[in-house]
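Fold Annotation — chain and its backbone
Encoding — discrete vocabulary of local shapes
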Amino acid sequence: MNALERWTVDFYDFTAPPPATEDPVLAAFGDLHARAARNSARHGTPVIVSPSGRPDARINLFFREGRMATSQPATWRRYAYTLVVWLDFLDAIDTTWDQATIRDVEAFKDWRITDSRNDERVKATSFDTDRAGLNSFYTWASSRFGASNPVPTVRVNDEASTGQAYGRGRRDPLRPAGSTSRQVKWLLREALEQWRDIGLRGYGFDGVRRPGRQGGFNEDRDTAFIDGLYGTGLRLREWASVLDVELPASGGERMGAARLGAKCVKGGREGRTYWIPRRVLQSVEGYLDPLEGSRTEVIRRAQRQGRYERLHGLRIITGHNPRTREVYTAAGQGREAVSLDELPPDERRLLFRRTPQGLEPLWVWLSVNGLPKKPHSWEDTFDAANRRIAEAWLRKADPEKRLSEAEGEQVRRECPLWATPHMCRHSFALKWFSILSLLEERRLEGFSPEEIEDFRDQLGDLWLQLAVLLGHRHPDTTRDHYLEPFTGLQVSYLMALLDDDERSGVDTLVRIFARHGGSVVGPVVAAGAAR
């Protein structure tokens, strides 16, 4: 099936110049980006195109007005891809989006999850994204165009015409039975390292690197990025958006304090402090190393090919003030101060400095072509690693290649080792849950229940400390959505999440508490790391 036989989606990229054209008819429309902006498009706004090659203006308007217009580009991408898959399905059953019924939506659910004729079936939790996207689209379309909402998760006004009404307290009928409000999955430290080594570095399940596979060109970049996700607990978009001027140097301390810009944080209200383990900083510094790291090599290649000069909307940085967290951009005859908190990821990707060799990006993570790597593209890195691991699992299970293609595919699907970016964050949460649980147990020995309650009221309990580490505004988010499944685990199991450096740190703190009889707060990890 080629692109003309199905719905497609593209996204406005205001950082690249519009494609050149010699067609006088197209030239008469003027500047493409200026025209798109006048039509309420922004950088990253989706454009969904039908198989005929024409866009449906009503569908695309969804991303340009109301609440969706102010959403993050990552949300646009998720919902746009959901709509494309939905529209293709509707074409296959010979109907249109504004004529779809509840029965069509339920058939779509079955096709996405269970239909054996669909080679791209998804898990129940993945369909939750489809459900949310369709619900949001049809809620908007019903008020904007009077289209009937076929998604059985919303109470409709005319119950007699639909025969359906779902009130509070009843399960959404479209919600898959296998899904939960939040499925928390995590990796032990050893499992994460095995995933990294097999998926990114070319090793097998036997611990031996495959012949001819000495790791990819970006091995140092990818391993440093994964180590950072696990070590900092940042969300994918947050860790993917850091600038080199925002990273502390690795030193003698186990944790280096860094500041995350407000426009990079989920919600974008205010920045926050986070902590980077010494080993992660050393791994990132290896990637940034001007002599041995791969980053410098891709920069030099891009400079020779003139890639940076062709970028649209570059901002040249002439200085940086770490105390005020400002960078200075060239402006006319002088310079202009810009707060790092006010720079969202898309603007950060356009920050460059001039060097004797040419322009150089401040954005840490670069693609093979030397251009700043877009945050969402890291999902592809994880997908590719999971596929390589599944292939390694098949080689382990069927070394003589006796299985049929269908049997081999089943073995790949059953591979027990896989990861997603957010699993790294969950694993970070569980790791610090184990550390803080042990420390709290030690420092509260000998207190009465009333004294323990007073202690927590005055100084904050374990959940508050975890909320600080994860960047949650309220500890309830941490407790209810992240760590409630972990509370029954044994400390011995939890300690398996730590590496030697982290275990040493915990042992040191435990000795401090023991020396003071367990009644002195001492240097709690989160507070101590912020020194």
